TrEMBL record:
Protein name: HxlR family transcriptional regulator
Residues annotated as domain HTH hxlR-type: 12-110
Key words of the record: DNA-binding, Transcription, Transcription regulation
Signal peptide: none
InterPro entries: ArsR-like_HTH, HTH_ArsR_DNA-bd_dom, HTH_HxlR, WH-like_DNA-bd_sf, WH_DNA-bd_sf
Database matches in Pfam families: HxlR
PROSITE patterns named among the record's database cross-references: HTH_HXLR
Domain of life: Bacteria
GO molecular function: DNA binding; DNA-binding transcription factor activity
Length: 162
């Protein structure tokens, strides 16, 4: 018996979307790749996911058109890293809405702090997922910085293919 249903041929676009995005690892991988953490070892370390599960998810995400690979050189060897495609970049509003929803409706753990979604073009925090709530401009990955105080850092997102 399969672990889950195949909804790839369904008429309902929500079911078809969940066929691709319904595994929580998928959105976490997209999040990390948009942050520029597209090397296998980075994803493995950052996510705490087993190598076997990560390999399967990456393969499935490439097949679904969410990720592509680009070559880079390290230690004199050509290797590959994963980059977001336009399909993955189109998930940015969903990721923003998940972060905003989590800020509003989940209990922040002790020692945590507010994650700010900053639109670089105007320098203001946005409270909307698709358009900057300060200036109204459409939000694109390359124009966004996520401020994560619990990590003591800011993470600029990357454009598709970058």
């Amino acid at each position: 018996m399969p672990l889950r249903s195949d909804w790839s041929t369904e008429y309902c676009p929500i079911r078809r979307s969940l066929d691709v995005l319904g595994d929580p690892w998928v959105l976490l991988i997209v999040r990390d790749v948009l942050h520029g953490n597209g090397r296998f070892d980075q994803l493995h370390r950052n996510l705490g996911i087993s190598e076997a599960v990560l390999s399967r998810r990456l393969r499935t995400m490439r097949e679904a058109g969410l990720l592509a690979t680009v070559d880079y050189e390290r230690d004199g060897r050509v290797r590959q890293r994963y980059v977001a495609t336009e399909a993955a970049a189109d998930l940015l509003p969903l990721l923003h809405h998940l972060a905003i929803w989590g800020e509003r409706h989940t209990v922040e753990p002790e020692g945590g702090a507010h994650m700010a979604l900053v639109h670089q073009a105007c320098g203001e925090e946005t409270t909307d997922g698709e358009r900057c709530s300060a200036c109204g401009e459409q939000l694109r990955p390359e124009d966004m910085t996520w401020v994560k105080p619990w990590l003591g850092s800011e993470h600029q997102l990357r454009a598709a293919g970058a």
